[in-house]
Amino acid sequence: MNVLSADTIRLHGTATTREEAIAEVGALLVSSGAVTDEYVSAMFARESSVSTYMGNLLAIPHGTNESKDSINRSAIAVVRYDDAIDWGGNPVRFVIGIAGKGDSHLEVLGSIATIFSDMSAVTELLEATTTDHVLSRLGLNAS
Q: Is 62 tagged catalytic?
């Protein structure tokens, strides 16, 4: 199942705060039809209880377990920022919003974790000039 496509990737996000970044990546998930607005609210609720900062310039905001009914289909949205966003004291350049229906997104999460554990791969993603490059580097195909 394809969970990421070029229309849910932004190479130059406009947010300057963690809250704006969650709203920005959440809006991509909503506009793709993957989730409802209620899911974005649940992304904020999750962030208020535990930080979704993962290390190596990455945050992965996602909804709460109670928000599963707000997911129409599994999807991922990627926003890259030209300037780091302060994520609870940590610098973030990539915000990857995740909405998982069932377990179909877990393989993609594993791929993202592997890529972002390697700073040379993160650097390659920072230097990517097209959404297709990001898609191919993440090992995903456009839907």
A: yes
